[in-house]
Write a structure and sequence with these properties.
Structural class: alpha/beta
Strand content: 15-25%
CATH topology: Rossmann fold
Number of domains: 1
CATH superfamily: NAD(P)-binding Rossmann-like Domain
Number of helices: 12
Helix content: 25-40%
Order of helices and strands: EEHEEHEHHEHEEHEEHEEHEHHHH
Radius of gyration: 20 Å
Strand order of the largest sheet: 1-4-3-2-5-6-7-11
Shape: globular
CATH architecture: 3-Layer(aba) Sandwich
CATH class: Alpha Beta
Length: about 375
């Protein structure tokens, strides 16, 4: 891949100097907090840009902004995949760096060269967090701390988008969570993201850093790792395997097509108010059982493939977001769930080689799947 480098690279300013005092810029001035930022002509850092949402966002930025440079920092854990970026291997605007957000020297050096940050890198699979939460705390909380410390030392960085999740609010049977509502995470994953969310907010309050938080609902679409609900069910159905549905499948999620999420995050970077949080949701709630039935119908498979298994520990019943705040910036979802799901199913049908490499050859995937779901039968 053109421009691919390892974490051992030398970047100007990569030393561990003391944080410099952040100068008051036009972007951080209270009188201009609602002014629109420009992304063209800028160099931005995307953390976790080889993962599902991150890689979709990298593609989105390159498609939307001709004069932009992206430094893509990804550790390439089990969920990071360079195949997600293969079609932009020769794009000189994209520079991939393999490295860990928990590496202060590497991160500090990169921050010297960017004007904006989109922080996607995280451990995100709830099921894995139930089995072993340690990596979630290290990556999601400590990794975010390392980035925020680098931000303190980099006054040229104009914005830092902390990508959080709707799961930090916890579950509710009725109504919708506003950005000002208390957070009440249920899973170790959600707790680790809540920690990162609150840490980012605290750094804004304490150090006046240009942090903006986004809290998207459940994303789906191309390049999603096939452990997650929709791609797991699609690929299992294509293989004629059972679809392991938790409990009775009555848990409710608001499904957001990944491209709509990318549009929202890019808009927040341009128009969002520093120090604020923005919910991002499609307000298109579906029960898990109904999503499973729709998948088998789209694929022409028998609904008997849907196999109830023991419910997930601490399984939240319903996530629901009040998204009026981000709509005031001019965003609304463009892809209805039925259309987005059909598009997603079609992508997995047409890209079998992509997911076969994971499901058939990844020892990490096979070990987790066989162990985790064997215990649920």
């Amino acid at each position: 891949m053109a421009g691919t480098r390892s974490g051992a690279m030398k970047i100007p300013g990569g030393g561990a100097s003391a944080p410099r005092k952040r100068k008051k810029s036009v972007l951080s001035s209270p009188r201009s907090r609602r002014g629109e930022r420009r992304l063209d002509g800028k160099t931005v850092l995307v953390t976790g840009g080889a993962g599902f949402i991150g890689s979709n966002f990298v593609h989105f930025l390159l498609d939307r902004t001709a004069d932009i440079r992206i430094i893509n920092l990804d550790k390439l854990t089990y969920a990071g995949n360079l195949d997600n970026l293969s079609d932009i291997a020769c794009d000189i605007r994209h520079d991939f760096v393999r490295g860990d957000i928990r590496d202060p020297k590497l991160v500090r050096g990169i921050f010297e060269n960017v004007q904006g940050v989109f922080h996607f890198a995280a451990e995100t699979h709830v099921d894995r967090s139930i089995v072993d939460a340690g990596e979630f705390i290290q990556t999601d909380v400590f990794g975010t701390f390392v980035l925020l410390e680098a931000l303190r030392a980099s006054p040229k960085v104009e914005f830092f988008i902390q990508v959080s999740t709707d799961e930090i609010y916890g579950s509710r049977d009725r109504g919708f969570f506003k950005e000002s509502d208390p957070i009440n995470p249920s899973s170790p994953y959600a707790a680790s993201k809540a920690g990162a969310d609150r840490l980012a907010s605290a750094y804004h309050v304490t150090h006046r850093l240009p942090v903006i938080i986004v809290r998207p609902s459940n994303n789906y679409g191309p390049f999603q790792y096939p452990e997650k609900f929709i791609p797991l069910f699609v690929t299992n159905a294509l293989e004629g395997k059972g679809l392991p549905l938790y409990g009775k499948g009555t848990n409710v999620r608001d499904w957001l097509y990944v491209e709509d999420n990318c549009r929202a995050i890019e808009l927040v970077a341009r128009r969002g108010v520093v120090g604020e949080a923005y919910n991002i949701g499609a307000n298109d709630e579906r029960r898990n059982i109904d999503v499973a039935r729709r998948i088998v119908k789209l694929l022409g498979k028998d609904a008997g493939l849907i196999k109830p298994v023991a419910d997930r520990l601490g399984h939240d019943r319903r996530y629901a977001l009040d998204c009026r705040k981000i709509r005031t910036l001019g965003w609304k979802p463009a892809v209805p769930f039925e259309a987005g799901l059909a598009r997603t199913v079609k992508w997995y049908v047409e890209n079998e080689e992509w997911w076969r490499k994971i499901k058939d050859r990844s020892e990490d995937f096979k070990a987790f799947y066989e162990t985790y779901y064997a215990e649920r039968k």
